[in-house]
Predict the 3D structure of the following.
Amino acid sequence: MKTMKVVLVDDHPLVLQGFKATLDSIDGMEVVGVADNAKTGEEVIEKHNPDVALLDIMLPGNSGLDLMKSLQEKLPDLKVIFITASDSDLYLVEALRYGAAGFLSKDSSKDLIELSIRGALAGGVILAAPLVGKAFGAIAQAAPQVRKPGSASMVDLSTREIDVLRLVAQGKSDNQIRKELNLGEHEIKEYVLTLRKKLGTKDRLTTALQGVRLGLVE
């Protein structure tokens, strides 16, 4: 089994030590580098080319979000998970829009940390429970305006698929979408499954986020 390489960037020594000890105790994971500021973090990440970077959202100098943006062109396959001291959604929307793979609190359990990293590498997005509702709420605010298929993306979606995507992004259930669009139970399930296949997503949250990232929902 391939070892998953992780870099940690946080300006609090105890947080770095705690996360490193936790990750080193998980089979198949290895912390290949640590840093306590954005500049050094960028250097360490470029040097080791890890699978995942865990970044403090607030770092000396540039923020963790700025660091992620700086790394995107150089390391497009890098998965970034932010670690934060609170459940604030201050940077949540922008971070998710730019491709963050998750948010963890600094007191996250070993199981949640492992789940987040494995989920990120599988293409998912893992959020601390209090942030899930905020994420859907933020996406829902953007969802009423939807671009026509193909206007900003190479993803080929039908008009009806766009309608379903917009309502998924608003946080509506399959049953609510079915009633609003006058679809059968089997039809709505097929539409949601097709959206996931076309967008390369595994759940409703990542489907909504991918719609935003690709410019299908703006």
About this structure: The mean pLDDT is 83. DSSP finds ten helices and six strands in the chain.
